[in-house]
Amino acid sequence: MKKRLPPTPTQQEVSLSDDEFIVSKTDGEGKITYINRVFMQTSGYTEAELLDQNHRMIRHPDMPHGLFQHMWNTLKNGNEFIGFVKNLCKNGGHYWVFAHVTPDHDAQGSFRGYYSVRRKPEKNAITTIAHLYDAMNQVEQNNGGRSAASASAQHMLEYIADKELSYDEFILQLDSH
Ligand SMILES: Cc1cc2nc3c(=O)[nH]c(=O)nc-3n(C[C@H](O)[C@H](O)[C@H](O)COP(=O)(O)O)c2cc1C
Predict the structure, then answer these.
(1) pTM over the 0.70 mark
(2) Residue 30 C-alpha to ligand 1 middle, in angstroms?
């Protein structure tokens, strides 16, 4: 299949309404197996375009790789991840979400993939987090290569540790203002 070029970002923002939730499920490798209607409406992609793809298809270039490295480390350790994510729409616009991602198990407790629910974030949180992500992107540019994501994830965790907070505490505190 021909590889599609990612859309060019327009910095045009689309906002979720207070009662909308974007839901998706993936297999163990992160390949999308389910999306709800709000996911399609917000991103502008059809079900056929999204199923079997990795969520990286909607990754916005302003998002640091280090954040996703931290997300995957958290999930691989069997823990739930929360965080603020800027996603890219098919038309180049974007939408910010407060995301909750969790490993998904069947009734017998066997791992079967991942599950994510996202809602509209607190507006004030975005200013702070976008600042932190800019700094992480700068760290990635300065490092380059394989160590870039680890270096920016470390930058984020040190920035948060300086506030004497855990990552989750920092995120929840930002979202509560
Ligand atoms: C359940 C689940 C939901 C995800 N949701 C998003 C998302 O909304 N946006 C995004 O850019 N990446 C999301 N990811 C992470 C992507 O799989 C990918 O790691 C990320 O886009 C960064 O790409 P990279 O791993 O090449 O750095 C999700 C992963 C999982 C398992």
Answers:
(1) yes
(2) 8
